[in-house]
Amino acid sequence: MLNVPSQSFPGPSSQQRVSSGGRSKVPLKQGRSLMDWIRLTKSGKDLTGLKGRLIEVTEEELKKHNKKDDCWICIRGFVYNVSPYMEYHPGGEEELMSAAGSDGTDLFDQVHRWVNYESMLKECLVGRMAVKPAFPKDYHEEKRLLNGMLPKSQVTDPLAKEGPSSPSYDWFQTDALVTIVIYTKQKDINLDSVIADHRDDSFRAETVIKDYSYLIHIALSHEIQEDFSVRVVENVGKIEIVLKKKENTSWKCLGHPLENHNSLIPKKDTGLYYRKCQLISKEDVTHDTKLFCLMLPPSTHLQVPTGLHVYFKLTITGTEIVKPYTPVSDSLFSEFKEPVLPNNKYIYFLIKIYPAGLFTPELDHLQIGDYVSVSNPEGNFKISQFRELEDLFLLAAGTGFTPMVKVLSYALTNIPSLRKVKLMFFNKTEDDIIWRSQLEKLAFKDKRFDLEFVLSAPTSEWNDKRGNISPALLSEFLERSLDT
Ligand SMILES: Cc1cc2nc3c(=O)[nH]c(=O)nc-3n(C[C@H](O)[C@H](O)[C@H](O)COP(=O)(O)OP(=O)(O)OC[C@H]3O[C@@H](n4cnc5c(N)ncnc54)[C@H](O)[C@@H]3O)c2cc1C
Ligand code: HEM
């Protein structure tokens, strides 16, 4: 972990900040942690001032509640009294006040659309907006059967005219199989681009096309077997999802459309979709960091692209809490060997357990076989920008190392032009260094990879670099690397 002064938490370079857009957490007063907030919401106190009554809120009414001690905010058509939450908001009172008395949906989504406000603020719910803001079309309007014709896809955002050309889908069947074919009309589609889930009788496939999501969402007309396969024909951007019928009967139609079926939506406007994953193993890596292995359900196809993260969701004392984590491989050498566990059903995470934290102790208490909800991948990083790279410098601190795991493996195996990869890895003490011996082995094995550990609180025996990140340290690191 980095040596972070307590008055500024998390530290300016902590991985707990999502760096873009100038976001910053503020130090909260004693007794104003998330756990304290959860306690307050469970205390039975009237947090809306309406004694549990829900009301219809007009725009004029909403506008009146724009002061710190009387602050209402509308998010996705629902109005919350956020005054009691002011002192608990990790982004600070000023940030929350920027949406006071108005529709804060866009602001909220720009900063942290993954935050589970519905659950956190359920005791603050004032009611609905009297006139609902524009919303995705209610799927009940469209109860027609999907009979195999190519439906014209809905583009729910006018801006999408500038986005990718509209995808479409079709389906066909044999005695035993039903194949859904998605024509993305894009060339850079691969297996990471498709996230598919089958739950009860509903089938959902989200295809990420640039910054948009194309959704197939259907209540299937017949039962299918648990597992299915996904194939991608990359050069034409065609995706085939092959479902196995439970009974060999002929289907007259694929099913009924569900919410947002056959629509192309800007990715930022899609909700986070979760599925329950089972904890398969948990291994100590350092004194406070563990390698968690989760198994996806058999009825899910999901591969997290390099550099992206997912959200975990757990219910902690009745409130759903969401936190981001970045998948890693099971070791730094797994790209070079046969996988121990087959077919991408397993996701690994290196997670530091904070004894005084809210989420990680709960995660650590899960037993093998228990479940945690895992979202679709999120993030803006695109590994394709590394394609022609010659020199790659990676800076990591503590668990901020997690995105580097897959980046390193990718760089060393997939970039032919690569000359040098250098990792500068900041930690407090030697005991905090994650996968130290694996990193050293990799540096020994692959001459293109160089490694530098920097410790902020080393023992007197430490002969290597010490201190915190600084311009001097960085320029020395860069200069020496470019010389070699
Ligand atoms: C994009 C992204 C990816 C991430 N990937 C990973 C990953 O792969 N692995 C990983 O381990 N983590 C990762 N994280 C961090 C992770 O999401 C959590 O922040 C982390 O697990 C801490 O969760 P917690 O709820 O247990 O701790 P928290 O409750 O957040 O507490 C953490 C520590 O800070 C202290 N603290 C909390 N609030 C304050 C305050 N106001 N003032 C002073 N001290 C305070 C607590 O006492 C505790 O010691 C990632 C974060 C991001 C943004
Ligand atoms: C609509 C106006 C809002 C704005 C402009 C805003 C802004 C911010 C900012 C700037 C941060 C700091 C992010 C960081 O650096 O990581 C933050 C964090 C946070 N906000 Fe808000 N916020 C808003 C509303 C809300 C609401 C209504 C909730 C309700 C639950 C909320 C919950 C949180 C939480 C839980 C975090 C911590 C996220 C993390 O762990 O990274 N915010 N917010």
From TrEMBL:
Alphabetized UniProt keyword annotations: Endoplasmic reticulum, FAD, Flavoprotein, Heme, Iron, Metal-binding, NAD, Oxidoreductase
Keyword Heme part of the UniProt annotation: yes
Domain CS: 164-255
GO molecular function, a single term: cytochrome-b5 reductase activity, acting on NADH
Comp. bias intervals (Low complexity): 1-24
Top class in the EC scheme: oxidoreductase
Compartments in which it is found: Endoplasmic reticulum
EC numbers, comma separated: 1.6.2.2
Cofactor: FAD
Reactions that this protein is recorded to catalyse: 2 Fe(III)-[cytochrome b5] + NADH = 2 Fe(II)-[cytochrome b5] + NAD(+) + H(+)
Alphabetical GO biological process terms: superoxide metabolic process
Superkingdom as given in the UniProt entry: Eukaryota
Location of region: Disordered: 1-27
GO CC, any one term: endoplasmic reticulum
PROSITE patterns on file: CS, CYTOCHROME_B5_1, CYTOCHROME_B5_2, FAD_FR
InterPro entries for the chain: Cbr1-like_FAD-bd_dom, CS_dom, Cyt_B5-like_heme/steroid-bd, Cyt_B5-like_heme/steroid_sf, Cyt_B5_heme-BS, Cytochrome_b5/Flavoprotein_Rdt, FAD-bd_FR_type, FNR_nucleotide-bd
Major localization listed first in the record, in broad terms: endoplasmic reticulum
Cytochrome b5 heme-binding domain sequence ranges: 54-130
Domain FAD-binding FR-type intervals: 272-384
Protein family according to the UniProt entry: Belongs to the flavoprotein pyridine nucleotide cytochrome reductase family. Belongs to the cytochrome b5 family.
Protein name listed in UniProt: Cytochrome b5 reductase 4
Organism: Delphinapterus leucas
Record gene name: LOC111183193
